[in-house]
Design a protein that fits this description.
The chain is of the alpha/beta class. The protein contains 16 helices and twelve strands.
Amino acid sequence: MLFEDPLQFRRAREDDPAGPGETPATDPQALATTVFAPPRRRRTRYYAFSSKLIALLSTADRLFSLLPKRQGALHPGGPWAVLVCNTAHIGDMAGLLPVIQALRASPQVSRVGVLTGSAGAEVLKVFAPDVPRHVFDHWNLSRVDQSLWQRLWTDFTDRPHLRDEIRNAGYDVALDAYPWFGNAATTLWAAGVPVRIGFASGGGGSLYTHVAAEDLAPERSVADASRLLFQPLAQAGFTVGRPLPVSAGFRADPLALSLAEQLGRYAVLHLGHGGRTQAWPLAHWDEVAVGLKRRGFQLVFTGTAEDAAFGAGVRGAWADHDAVGRGDLRYFATLLREAALVVSVDTGTPHLAGLFQTPTVIIPSGRQPLTWWRPEHPSVRQVTTATGCAPCYRSQGCAAMACLRATPSAAVLAAADEVTASADR
């Protein structure tokens, strides 16, 4: 069955109790076979679904293959100066921190630098302040409040400075951990880094000296895929030492610590911005808040200033502390570290909580494989609703978003019980 509008789906089921503007019918068997919008299927080596973007990446790769290779060799056994690249967002950098720690612990690596976007730079300031940062916002990844043409112009004017900065830093090898369009392939080639390792799936693969042997498969996490970039280094003698936990370098915010002490046992609820890809119904959030209160949790609501409008009524009714739009990233991370539980839609929040092994329940959509963004620790559960179109690989989802909106609050509360019980053992 194919429905592009949730209202069509409801009208097709006379027994659907959902009211106007609410979730489509929640019968699991019906949802599991219903296609709300045709899922996209990957047909080329690129993780891109627009025919125009695929044509652009393919043409660019053909032209790039005509350029000089600019390939150097790694000195066997090191020492190497390594640049790790990912210019995406908070969750991406949080997931990459264990990889950075592994490199820093290697006896073959003399120093590590990071090429990151503005959001990722904030994560590094909090968790790895001594790591050199090269900050650059790719026009397609930037969340700065600018028009497309402004972002393109900023990208164009900043690239020469970034190229010179990386060149002057004298890196021996660069690991480009972003497998989609927006990677650093052109910058690394222009900077003349001798060994450049990355994924072909984001375009510019012909500019790397080594392409990852495997791709970001649906069953592999993004963090795990990043470790595939170690393989060429292993051939030159790379070994992983005993890395410290990412949280070991974290310095807690004293105000957040004081608040956590006052609250006692609390859960963090992160509702997100309420846009299509994060719009878990407010009625469900209300039910989760009630359920957690009955379980003895104090409730802390978090979010950015842009999230403030969504869920204001829920926060007003149940918040023991409303931190939406308040504090910096260190304050926020401290609240996550001290929490007994985190419940969040799929944002950077679960990834930051994962750095502290905080018990976490994630309410994701079915836009991408669940394995891609699952934090790598045991006390985390993802709760979603199977639909016939998930994963759809649609960046903005569809009008129905049944994979998200039909997820019941009871399932989220059950997952919360499970992760908190396992953490208490």
